[in-house]
Specification:
The structure is a single chain. The protein has 200 residues and is of the alpha+beta class. The chain is 34% helix and 22% strand. It is built from 8 helices and 6 strands, in the order αβααβαβααααβββ. The longest helix is centred in the middle third of the chain and has 15 residues.
């Protein structure tokens, strides 16, 4: 017997019904990350999002976030600084990394037909204050969508950016990758080493 609320279970059922409409995704993704985490292992683990939660994943669900263009990646990573006017005391170096993404089964929430089949609007996806809801101890609707997609077996979701008009983000569930699906860091030989190798 399901322990989900009726609304969440209905959402999960609608997401599962979209499996037959899953889309492949072969694209270059962009991640802007702090220097400490700009190593191959951390970039591709999804553990950071899994530990803290994100717009599209609750705590405990590992997820790799990537934008499909560098401007969106920059705005996603710096949105809090942009709102605060870039106070000098909080600006830290970041590394922009390209990811080669090749997935077979993605739930494309940038497709209006998919959103309508789930009973969702564009505003539902980009206007929710997910962090405040998570802080209150509740599950944001967007996190429920990500959780439902992961439980249905999707390798990831393609979502509209809340920070850049017409920008798109890929949210990849590394634990769901199928044989032949890959997410790889580009120019990995130029990435910083893992912090455990840093001197004293």
């Amino acid at each position: 017997m399901s322990t989900e609320s009726d609304d969440v279970q209905d959402l999960f059922d609608r997401i599962a019904a979209c499996k037959q409409r899953a889309s492949p995704l072969k694209a270059t993704g962009f991640r802007s990350t702090g220097t400490k985490y700009a190593n191959e292992a951390d970039l591709l683990s999804g553990h950071g999002a899994g530990a803290h939660g994100g717009r599209w994943n609750p705590r405990g669900l590992t997820a790799i976030y990537a934008s499909l263009d560098p401007v969106t990646a920059t705005k996603e990573s710096y949105h809090e600084l942009l709102q605060a006017g870039f106070p000098a005391s909080v600006i830290r170096p970041r590394v922009m990394v390209g990811l080669a993404i090749d997935l077979k089964q993605v739930l494309d929430l940038t497709d209006g037909r998919i959103r309508r089949s789930l009973g969702l609007t564009l505003a539902d996806l980009i206007e929710e204050d997910w962090s405040a809801i998570q802080l209150s101890g509740e599950e944001p609707w967007t996190q429920a969508i990500g959780r439902g997609a992961a439980e249905a077996g999707f390798e990831g979701i393609l979502v509209p950016s809340a920070r850049q008009l017409r920008g798109k983000n890929a949210v990849i569930f590394p634990g769901n990758l199928r044989r032949g699906s890959t997410v790889e860091a580009m120019a990995k030989e130029d990435l910083p080493p893992h912090p455990k190798t840093w001197p004293g």
